[in-house]
Design brief:
Number of domains: 2
Number of strands: 15
Order of helices and strands: HHHEHEEHEHHEHEHEHEEEEEEEE
CATH superfamily of the largest domain: ANL, N-terminal domain
Strand content: 15-25%
CATH topology of the largest domain: Rossmann fold
Largest sheet: 13 strands, mixed
Structural class: alpha/beta
Radius of gyration: 19 Å
Number of helices: 10
Helix content: 25-40%
Length: 325
């Protein structure tokens, strides 16, 4: 069955096997996901006429706000919910099997950074901790558990306590994951050398002034701490994450691919790079929808590398991304 094959392939998908898996998953989800099928039919796409990934219909991400996007008849065990400002409707990603999410984020974390047990893990995520059903909080809780370090902790607004912990000698490197506005506030009040530390910013200013350019954020955090600053690209509607190093180029896991759509013709999709709307294929979304047209403006550098350039002008501001201005 394609579902189990997809789940088993997370961690060992190759460039040669990705497209055949994606095409079979498209047919699987077209048959089982009523909302996705209706959308595909509305734009005149069906499995009998889809032979390449460029022809696969990508569901606008806004459908996660207005509909239950499921490709399974099983009862969901949980849902993840996006952040939202006043007046906005949050997205909901219904989860049939949490082990699929866990398998995806753990595999890719290990590929990029090594096993979590090699790190002390701290999370400065006030906007996520202040609400329920955050997929990022779930991921960090799981990684902290696998890490097993006695100092692992979440922080809401207690910057002084976090500064004391950062100053405490540690025998392993530290990963400090934080929402952008909180990292900026913390390092402004407690500038300090953070040796042997990776700062992982997840984006997000929550309406606190002008959205800064990501490179400016990284430069400021490095000046204040001396730490290496990376970024995570993730969202409620996806089970997989992309990570960037200091070069601001996001790298996808092998079971995730990016494509670029024309801004003036959203049904015109290419895997040859360029600039436009960001479409994502996430095979880990096997029980929801694996083919997502995001609201982000991006530059595709390869099938698995991209840069985020900002938001499309008609899109709502998301908490997990920085705007380029």
């Amino acid at each position: 069955m394609i579902r189990q094959e997809i789940i088993s392939s997370i961690g060992n998908v190759s460039a040669e096997t990705f497209e055949p898996l994606a095409l079979r998953l498209f047919q699987y989800q077209w048959e089982r996901n009523e909302i996705y099928r209706k959308y595909a039919e509305a734009i005149h796409r069906n499995p009998n006429e889809v032979f390449t990934m460029e022809q696969i219909p990508f569901l606008p991400i806004s459908f996660f706000k207005s509909h239950t996007v499921l490709s399974s008849s099983e009862k969901p065990v949980k849902f993840f919910e996006s952040s939202s400002t006043s007046g906005q409707i949050p997205s909901k990603h219904w989860v049939v099997d949490l082990k699929v999410y866990e398998r995806s984020f753990l595999h890719h974390f290990i590929e990029r950074y090594g096993h979590p047990s090699q790190y002390r893990m701290l999370a400065l995520l006030p906007s996520y901790l202040e609400r329920q059903h955050s997929s990022l909080v779930y991921m960090m809780e799981y990684l902290m558990k696998v890490s097993g370090h006695s100092d692992n902790a979440f922080f809401l607004h207690d910057f002084e306590e976090l500064s004391k912990l950062m100053a405490k000698p540690c025998s392993v490197p530290t990963i400090l994951v934080g929402v952008t506005f909180a990292l900026l506030d913390f390092t402004e009040k407690f500038p300090m050398p953070m040796e042997n530390t990776i700062i992982m910013e997840t984006g997000g200013m929550k309406g606190r002034g002008k959205e800064p350019i990501r490179s400016e954020v990284h430069q400021l955090l490095t000046q204040r701490t001396g730490a290496v600053v990376y970024s995570e690209y993730g969202m409620t509607e996806l089970f997989s994450q992309a990570y960037s190093d200091a070069d601001e180029i996001f790298h996808c896991p092998a079971w995730m691919r990016v494509m670029i759509r024309e801004v003036d013709d959203p049904l015109s999709v290419s895997n040859r790079g360029g600039r436009g709307g960001l479409n994502i294929i996430d095979l880990a979304n096997v029980d929801s929808c694996a083919f997502i047209a995001t609201d982000d403006l991006a530059e595709g550098l390869s099938a698995d590398q991209f840069k985020v350039l900002g938001r499309l002008t008609t899109a709502e501001t998301r908490g997990c991304n920085l705007l380029y201005v």
